[in-house]
Amino acid sequence: MANDKKKMVEEITSMEVDFAKWYTDVVKKAELVDYSGVRGCMIMRPYGYAIWENIQKDLDARFKATGHENVAMPLFIPESLLQREKDHVEGFAPEVAWVTMGGSEELTERLCVRPTSETLFCDHYKNIIHSYRDLPKLYNQWCSVVRWEKTTRPFLRTMEFWWQEGHTMHETAEDAIEETERMLNVYADFCEQSLAIPVIKGQKTDKEKFAGAQATYTIEALMHDGKALQSGTSHYFGDGFARAFDITFTDRQNKLQYPHQTSWGMSTRIIGAIIMTHGDDNGLVLPPAIAPIQLVILPIAQHKPGVLEKASELRDRLQSVCRVKMDDSDNSPGWKFAEYEMKGVPLRLEIGPRDIENNQCVLVRRDNREKTVVSLDELEAKIPELLKAVHDGIYNIALERRKRMTHVCDGDFEDMKKMAAEKPGFIKAAWCGDLACEEKLKEEAGVTSRCIPFDGESVSDRCVCCGKKAKATVIWGKAY
Amino acid sequence: MANDKKKMVEEITSMEVDFAKWYTDVVKKAELVDYSGVRGCMIMRPYGYAIWENIQKDLDARFKATGHENVAMPLFIPESLLQREKDHVEGFAPEVAWVTMGGSEELTERLCVRPTSETLFCDHYKNIIHSYRDLPKLYNQWCSVVRWEKTTRPFLRTMEFWWQEGHTMHETAEDAIEETERMLNVYADFCEQSLAIPVIKGQKTDKEKFAGAQATYTIEALMHDGKALQSGTSHYFGDGFARAFDITFTDRQNKLQYPHQTSWGMSTRIIGAIIMTHGDDNGLVLPPAIAPIQLVILPIAQHKPGVLEKASELRDRLQSVCRVKMDDSDNSPGWKFAEYEMKGVPLRLEIGPRDIENNQCVLVRRDNREKTVVSLDELEAKIPELLKAVHDGIYNIALERRKRMTHVCDGDFEDMKKMAAEKPGFIKAAWCGDLACEEKLKEEAGVTSRCIPFDGESVSDRCVCCGKKAKATVIWGKAY
After folding, report:
1. Going by DSSP bridges, is the β-strand pair B295-299/B324-326 parallel, antiparallel, or unpaired?
2. Cα–Cα distance between A297 and A374 in angstroms, integer?
């Protein structure tokens, strides 16, 4: 920051004017990413990567607390291995990058850069699973994967993205399904408790499920502009891959069985969700749990005797309370206010000569700019309280917004088209279960099925598209 | 571990019989890695990956304490970018994997899978460095890289390996050289303080330095079998890349300058060094600082009343003291002793009915099997003390071995050849500085220059190869 001395805080396009441009401005100006010379690949800059590091640390602890272990798998998948499970290869082959040469020699078999690692895990599981005593295997890996996307946007859709992918094997279908649900709950809890993002849990329709899965569960969040963002998914595979890869184990009755499999993932997309759920026209608003800087100390009239000393003393003292930074650069206080607002720092502490005289300082919340005058003796108690207030504040705003932007359509297809065109947000409407209706809704109303929510209240007994008997309530929407 | 019930602890080939086989046995049987279906790529299994996680955590804290920030760069380098710096591309092009297709479409420009990321960092630095106020840039990334190797061995040489790569830019040559030395010291301190591996710091000869570097510094460790292992390197690039990538900044006198650059890396090879420095015929011996399990609690006669309760109570109580595991599987104590010796767990705690009666337990060190009877009231004090004793013990053994296996050759080429053939280890011998002598020593005596040590005592004033005037003392050896 000391290097930014002469930099101006640049204007961010207003959300109302152009939401897409607002997003790109925030991502660039808060220095989260830079575009690289490689088409569709982003560079995560220190501030963006620090957010990802905090996400990793938090999620990883949740995975370990639920008994999972980390491993590292190869980056490459031989073509024959990718082809082993039919549905899976059909889903992924069109969007993978192929390595065809090593040094100057042509490879006899092409290698794809992993788009996801089910096939690699299965190849390994075949070596290490023999008995029910070897189960469950509860593995996870942190890595990047590559999917050959046509159009890309930082965090939301990039050719290379970073994620974790859990891959587990179980004795029974019940155990595997329980795992799928457990991990979906881990994701939902993480989103709500750490990212202050309310999510809807549900199941994907067959059309939208993962290539090769029997069932895909999802958490869906609603962005500021009324579009949905799939924030984490959890898949149940049954024993399909196990059969394709010939993975068997001797069960408790000494019979040979196929194990049941799951996988689940959350990626750097979630940073896009944080930006578009909480951000405003002044820039980022970061949930305290993952903010690289939770409190920034800004000395006021810092040339006056004692101010910098006091500010430094506070910085040292508050290290044990939160992630703290003190900015004593010679930029103006106004510049600094704008800069740290843009960077979404949850709390700002202002301290000047008069504050010092009165043994106090001013704490300002990023979310609503509420100011509190606090005695310097009470900071250790007050800061965690205010960080929690910021978390709760932004969570409630997001929840209120989602309520406001969730609509029910119990009419016919014309009503649905009209609602989809006029009302941004989620639309709850009944569905007969036919692919044809789902496709028609996508093509003519421009909405896709986000999920069949677990808490599926019935909104109508007739399909919103064809009028036939409804099988499920679906949440429809436009999506990132 | 509960799953290993019926598994036998398999025999490990003795070091004396076949060192290479001993290494492979340890790596496989301690479940550090599995071979994958991708030629030359390894799978890091939970126990192996947990070691890497502990290494990462420790090193990352040292990087952050010296002012470095983490970023993430793309996996791919466009061919034209790799070619920008002449020496660099010559060094790396023969050993890279090339992506030539995305989905079903042929790429107009090939992308290589990064073998190292200098070119990507430079491409980014060009965007973000404009003024001396933007300097230094002190970046690091954790990732995997790919080099198309012909023959591979787990950890020591794999096509894909995991590492960190630091890349920094500075105002002056002095600043950059200071950084290169600082990071070499960070590596050396880490090896000695956390891995208990003594290392020699020095400079690489021109022949052995990194492609594109002006100077390469290295830390060299000596393995059990007398072969050297390069454990970390730090490179000074001058402004060569900056010129090739046209990165300039306005200096304090308002003149345009090229910044000065460094890079430095340590990889999963270091796990190979841990194995081959400390391991013995019973398996791994892990330095306490990075051991996934620092203390294993083994209940003796665990079916007797109160034993398992006491063991569980101790496990819970000792969580705050060290990384602890309790094994209450129904394997025999003998099996468990062998298993955790093989896994290199630094301390074993045995507790049985009589111990409980006497309010005591037995602590056994992995390195020398020394047993200590300890009162249960003193565990919090005694365990850290014993972990330190294990660290010091294995460090001193490694240091003694290196002393014993470091030879001085002040004779002629025939003496050198004889010594290289008969005495495994490091050979200190003078060198005239000519590439021809270095190559002759490699071809005819089978040794390469490991480094010109910083503490270069003079061993002779004549080159051990040609007899001409010596320019430096070099450490020669066979190397991994």
Report:
1. parallel
2. 14
Same domain, A415 and A392: no
A285 lies in a domain? no
Helices marked H in B287-366 — which ranges? 307-318, 333-342, 353-357
- Is residue B57 less than 8 Å (CB to CB) from chain A? no
> Contact B74/A42, CB-based, under 8 Å?
yes
The number of distinct structural domains making up chain A is: 3
Q: Give every CB contact of residue A12 below 8 A, 6+ residues apart in sequence.
A: A22, A25, A26, A29, A281, A282, A283, A342
Give the integer Cα–Cα distance in Å for B296 and A32.
43
Alpha carbon A303 to its chain centroid, in Å, reads 43
**Domain enclosing residue B330, as ranges:** 293-402
pTM: 0.96
Each residue's pLDDT tens digit, A244-270: 999 999 999 999 999 999 999 999 999
Q: Complex ipTM, two decimals?
A: 0.95
Residues B417 and B469 occupy one common structural domain? yes
Instruction: Answer yes or no: is A5 within a domain.
Output: no
Per-residue pLDDT reduced to its tens digit, B340-382: 999 999 999 999 999 999 999 999 999 999 999 999 999 999 9
Instruction: Please check whether residues A211 and A310 belong to one and the same domain.
Output: no
CA B164/CA B182 separation, integer angstroms: 16
Helix (H, G, I), strand (E, B) or coil at B333: helix
pLDDT band at A10 (very low <50, low <70, confident <90, very high): low
B residues 114..153 contacting A (CB < 8 A)? 120, 123-124, 127-128, 131, 133-135, 139, 143-144, 146, 148
The answer on A456 and A371 residing in a single domain is no
Assigned token pair, A131: 């008995």
Would an 8 Å CB–CB cutoff place B32 in contact with chain A? no
CA atoms of B391 and B193, how far apart (whole Å): 8
DSSP bridge pairs for B105: B102
Is residue B459 within 8 A of residue B428, CB to CB? The reply is: yes
Q: Which of B402, B433, B459 is the last residue of a domain?
A: B402
Instruction: Tell me the one-letter amino acid at B60.
Output: D
Examine the fold and report which residue of A278, A309, A332 is the final residue of a domain before the chain moves on: A278
Residues A395 and A423 grouped into a single domain: no
At B430, which CATH number? 3.30.110.30
CA dihedral B263, B264, B269, B272 (to 10 degrees): 170
For residues B122 and B40, state if they share a domain: yes
